[in-house]
């Protein structure tokens, strides 16, 4: 790590998980730790992260607090109520940052459902943010993309050159992101915003792209859990073979 700037991390975790099909996907076990424990652990011991704000329904605060006791020191962990849409959850989290001491200069916003982000992805996103006020970890789109027509057949092939999948942590200068959010909120222009970089984009501010990773998967369906378990199992067996 080459910087000592203070980051807060907001972890939006207030989604309904409707595409997961039953149960709280954040409490699913991935090789001895849950999805949520792993996502929080990514930031818990970083010296550049002073605060972690978990955004979720108030009736989960106590359960999640005790669930995370072994992962992060309680004075570093804060809880904020979620909203109906992801952007509302993030805005609630952002507004709460001004009451922290010391107030953070930078923020990383990381989906609770991304438990396996490689540390190097976070290091680079933070470094770029300190230099340029924002960073968006992205993965070049590897697939050939099709648009489906109303008849269930291919209507078009999309040129994938220059297309990237946006990942998290998406990182920003806190004051700038909050100002951008409040401006769009006042103008009623947040309804279709699905990630935080769009707030910078809509204000005309540059969003530098940093390196993403296929390992930084978002747990959305039950199949993603199988994939995540396989990744954890293979990294555990690699670790133990290195130790031998
Ligand atoms: O819905 P989507 O998959 O984009 O959600 C990404 C992240 O945002 C998840 O971690 C989810 O819990 C969170 N979220 C939220 N509040 C909402 C909707 C989603 O915190 N209202």
What do you see in this structure?
The structure is a single chain. The protein is α/β, with parallel strands linked by helices and 244 residues long. It has one domain (7-243): Spore Coat Polysaccharide Biosynthesis Protein SpsA, Chain A. The chain has seven helices and twelve strands. It has helices at 35-44, 61-67, 86-96, 119-132, 174-186, 197-202, 222-243; strands spanning 7-12, 29-30, 33-34, 49-56, 77-81, 106-109, 134-140, 145-148, 154-158, 164-166, 170-173, 209-211. The strands form three sheets. Strands 1, 4, 5, 6, 7, 10, 11 and 12 form an eight-stranded mixed beta sheet that branches. It has a two-stranded antiparallel sheet with strand order 2-3. It has a two-stranded antiparallel ribbon with strand order 8-9. Strand 4 (49-56), helix 2 and strand 5 form a beta-alpha-beta unit. The two termini are 28 Å apart. The mean pLDDT is 94.
């Amino acid at each position: 790590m080459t910087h000592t700037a203070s980051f807060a991390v907001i972890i939006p975790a207030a989604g309904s998980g409707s595409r997961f099909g039953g149960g709280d996907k954040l409490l699913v076990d991935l090789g001895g730790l849950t999805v949520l424990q792993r996502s929080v652990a990514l930031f818990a011991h970083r010296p550049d992260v002073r605060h972690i704000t978990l955004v979720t329904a108030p009736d989960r605060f106590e359960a999640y607090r005790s669930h995370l006791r072994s992962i992060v020191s309680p004075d570093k962990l804060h809880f904020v109520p979620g909203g109906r849409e992801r952007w509302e959850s993030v805005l609630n989290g952002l507004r709460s940052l001004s009451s922290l001491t010391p107030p953070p200069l930078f923020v990383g916003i990381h989906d609770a459902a991304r438990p396996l982000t490689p540390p190097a992805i976070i290091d680079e996103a933070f470094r770029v943010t300190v230099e340029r006020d924002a960073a968006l970890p992205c993965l070049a789109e590897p697939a050939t993309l099709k648009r489906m027509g109303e008849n269930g057949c291919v209507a078009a092939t999309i040129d994938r050159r220059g297309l990237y999948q946006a990942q998290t942590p998406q990182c920003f200068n806190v004051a700038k992101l909050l100002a951008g959010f409040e401006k769009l909120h006042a103008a009623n222009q947040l309804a279709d915003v699905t990630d935080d970089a769009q707030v910078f984009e809509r204000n005309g501010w540059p969003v530098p792209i940093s390196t993403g990773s296929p390992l930084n998967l978002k747990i959305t369906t039950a199949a993603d859990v199988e994939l995540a378990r396989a990744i954890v199992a293979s990294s555990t067996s690699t670790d133990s073979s290195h130790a031998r």
